[in-house]
Amino acid sequence: MACAWDFQFRVLLLGDSGVGKTSLLRRYTEEEFIDSTVPTVGVDFCSRIEEPEAGVKVRLQFWDTAGQERYRAVTRSYYRNAACVILLFDLTARKTFESIQNWYQEVTERAQPHPLLYLLLGTKSDMRGQRSVAREEAQSLANSITAPYLETSAKTGSNISAALSLLCRELLSALRQEKQAPVEHSCGGCGVEEETPHKRILCTC
Ligand SMILES: Nc1nc2c(ncn2[C@@H]2O[C@H](COP(=O)(O)OP(=O)(O)OP(=O)(O)O)[C@@H](O)[C@H]2O)c(=O)[nH]1
């Protein structure tokens, strides 16, 4: 049996507690929104397969980390081999925006190898009247860390598919520019043995 995807990337979600990491993933993978969620404990996992180009299947493997400080030691252990880091802040909670620099620093200092790509998302865009971060300042922060910036809502679904499709295309493009080191890879579970050209493509069959 062959693998059901051609490439797999680990995507790490980071941001303060309550910014909406779990909600964004739930909207993206299950097309639902829950008004009252419980804080993530440690790290949760989920995945979805995208087809950014005809015939090219990409499996995004999400690592949804707890934003609460007390889980930091656990979540840090998952930074390794993340191909992409999605940094999230709540558009209605300024403090979460101010934390983004710290989250970015946290990853750049600890993640080995360095992630290929960062994506900055302002969440809860449906709460228009309560906005406390201007689009311009968020865009300026995104520029400073060379990350695309989008505003999303897990509640309405606004921009969520767009954000993840963008991420997929950018990852493929980075991969084609050979920004990742080669490594041998063989898969025991699905019977497919192959050399993948990039170390962050891991088969977990
Ligand atoms: N209005 C609105 N509320 C949202 C949105 N996304 C998340 N929420 C709410 O924000 C709260 C926190 O959402 P979570 O997804 O649990 O946040 P989290 O970042 O995963 O939190 P931790 O697991 O503690 O790190 C919940 O009550 C959600 O319903 C959104 O797009 N719009």
Essential attributes:
binds guanosine-5'-triphosphate; alpha/beta; Small_GTPase; GTP-binding; six-stranded mixed sheet; 8 strands; 205 residues; GTPase activity
Structure, explained:
GO terms for molecular function: GTP binding; GTPase activity. Belongs to the small GTPase superfamily. Rab family. The chain has 205 residues and is α/β, with parallel strands linked by helices. It is built from 6 helices and 8 strands. It has helices at 21-30, 72-76, 94-98, 100-110, 135-144, 160-176, and strands at 7-14, 43-53, 56-65, 84-90, 117-123, 149-151, 185-186, 193-194. The protein has a 6-stranded mixed β-sheet with strand order 2-3-1-4-5-6, sandwiched between helices. The protein binds guanosine-5'-triphosphate. Guanosine-5'-triphosphate (GTP) is lined by residues 15, 17-23, 34-37, 39-40, 66-68, 123-124, 126-127, 153-155.
Number of strands: 8
Determine the N-to-C terminus distance: 10 Å
Rg result: 17 Å
Helix content: 25-40%
Q: Count of helices? A: 6
Strand content: 15-25%
What hetero molecules are in the model?
A: guanosine-5'-triphosphate
Low-confidence stretches: 181-188, 191-205
Structural class, from secondary structure content?
A: alpha/beta
In N-to-C order, the SSE pattern is: EHEEHEHHEHEHEE
Spatial strand order of the main sheet? 2-3-1-4-5-6
Keywords: GTP-binding, Lipoprotein, Nucleotide-binding
Organism: Eleutherodactylus coqui (Puerto Rican coqui)
Pfam families: Ras
Protein name: Ras-related protein Rab-39B
